[in-house]
Write a structure and sequence with these properties.
Layout (H helix, E strand, L loop, with lengths): L2 H8 L4 H14 L4 H15 L2 E2 L4 E2 L4 E3 L4 E3 L4 E2 L4 E3 L4 E3 L4 E2 L4 E3 L1 E3 L13 E3 L2 E3 L4 E2 L4 E2 L4 E2 L4 E2 L4 E2 L8 E3 L4 E2 L2
Parallel strand pairs: 1-4, 2-5, 3-6, 4-7, 5-8, 6-9, 7-12, 8-13, 9-14, 12-15, 13-16, 14-17, 16-18
Antiparallel strand pairs: 10-11, 18-19
Helix pairs in contact: 2-3
């Protein structure tokens, strides 16, 4: 099946949402200063399922499939970070996301071995991040993980399993370090 037709069928009810987030995300993504942050906040306040208060969305943050993203109060996301809300991402209050962090709530289904990798379906797996969490630079949070309140994800960590409240994790794959 043609990739464009396949995409249109898969996201039939969300095509306009995806188009708006792509177009206006591209338009506002690089705007500097408070004007840029305000424009991005207004855009994502409209596109997210929930965005409770003003969020610091730094230039270069890349947010896709925002129809699956819920965010609490006092959220900040730094430059180069990417959140894919396709499978659902819930972020609590007072969460800081460092530069170049990746939060992916979907992945290609590697078990469909009869199909080329580029044509396989996505496995959707929600990500839940509690309150007062700090995610360091270049960390990766994979689908299906829960991060408890007060947790710290160190820079460069790859989180593939749940992180419990007030744990400090680091490494590849991430494990408790404090």
């Amino acid at each position: 099946m043609n990739p464009i037709t396949r995409f249109a069928r898969k996201y039939r009810g969300r095509l306009m949402h995806i188009w708006v987030e792509e177009f206006f995300g591209w338009l506002f993504r690089g705007l500097p200063g408070m004007v840029g942050m305000t424009m991005r906040w207004l855009l994502y306040r409209y596109l997210f399922v929930r965005l409770e208060t003003f969020a610091l969305i730094y230039p270069g943050a890349y947010l896709i499939h925002t129809y699956g993203i819920r965010v609490g109060r006092s959220f900040s996301i730094n430059s180069g970070a990417m959140i894919d809300g396709r499978g659902g991402v819930t972020i609590g209050d007072y969460v800081m996301v460092g530069p170049n962090v990746v939060i992916a709530s979907s992945d290609h289904d590697y078990r469909q071995t009869d199909l080329p990798m580029a044509t396989r379906d996505h496995k959707l797996a929600p990500v839940a991040i509690g309150n007062d969490v700090w995610i360091g630079a270049n960390a990766v949070i994979t689908g299906g993980t829960n991060i408890g309140d007060g947790a710290v994800i160190s820079a460069g960590a790859i989180v593939t399993r749940n992180v419990y409240a007030y744990q400090i994790v680091g490494g590849v794959p991430a494990r408790v370090i404090g």
